[in-house]
Amino acid sequence: MSLQLNRTTFGDPANKGNVLSKTEAEQLFHEWVLNPRLQLHMRQVGRLMRAWAAEQEGLGESDQWRWELAGLLHDADWDQWPEQHCRKIIEELETRHVDPAIIRAIASHGPLHFGVEPETRMDKMLYAFDELSGFIHAYSLMRPNGYEAMDLKGVKKRLKDKAFAANVSREDIADACSRAELSLDELISFIISRQEG
Ligand SMILES: [Fe+2]
Ligand SMILES: [Fe+2]
């Protein structure tokens, strides 16, 4: 099954700045995503994107929402239409005249799978948070106290253990860090300080 998008441009530049309202986003989220585990993953990535935009990029509220929206909806079609991931959500957001930057970030969240290179800061951070956030969540589930007192060392130890969460691509994680020009340590530290179950 190929998920290659075979496209390099997304959305219409005339729609710059257009977003879904919180209510519209929540409605789409609940209609499309029924699996609670996937819902949690998407919310976690959305929150990380918002926190990063605010704290590391110094962006204001409207940009924070654009970043959050990209995270919140990046896997919206994965639950019911995995063979159309992420083509379907891209086309839906294009139909709704959403800001091309948000659509582009979603289209590039898996360059190896979708064939779209992450270019902007938003693109790169979405790619960087996606796998690693999921990995850290898997780690939290096997700890007696979840996220409590989780440390960098413990996460790195599990990353080296190839049998643990074997479906999480260590290659994608390393690739995403280097594209975002962040060390693995920085990225893990940010996630464990912000993420909750
Ligand atoms: Fe995905
Ligand atoms: Fe994801």
Explain what the structure shows.
The protein is mainly α. It has a single domain, classed as Hypothetical protein af1432 (Orthogonal Bundle), CATH 1.10.3210. Helices cover 60% and strands 0% of the residues. Helix 3 runs parallel beside helix 5 and helix 7 crosses helix 10. It is globular. It binds fe (ii) ion (2 copies). The site of one fe (ii) ion has 4 residues, from loops. The site of one fe (ii) ion has 6 residues, from loops.
In short:
The protein is mainly α and 197 residues long.
Main sheet specs: none
| Order of secondary-structure elements | HHHHHHHHHH
The count of helical stretches stands at: 10
For this structure, the CATH topology is: Hypothetical protein af1432
- Tell me what the CATH architecture is: Orthogonal Bundle
Bound molecules: fe (ii) ion
- Mass-distribution shape: globular
- Structural class determined from secondary elements: mainly alpha
CATH class placement = Mainly Alpha
* Uncertain segments: none
Mean pLDDT score: 97
Distance between the termini: 32 Å
Strand fraction? under 5%
Radius of gyration: 16 Å
Strand segment tally = 0
| Whole-number total of structural domains | 1
Helix percent band: 55-70%
Considering the chains and any ligands shown, give keywords for the structure:
10 helices; 197 residues; Hypothetical protein af1432; mainly alpha; binds fe (ii) ion
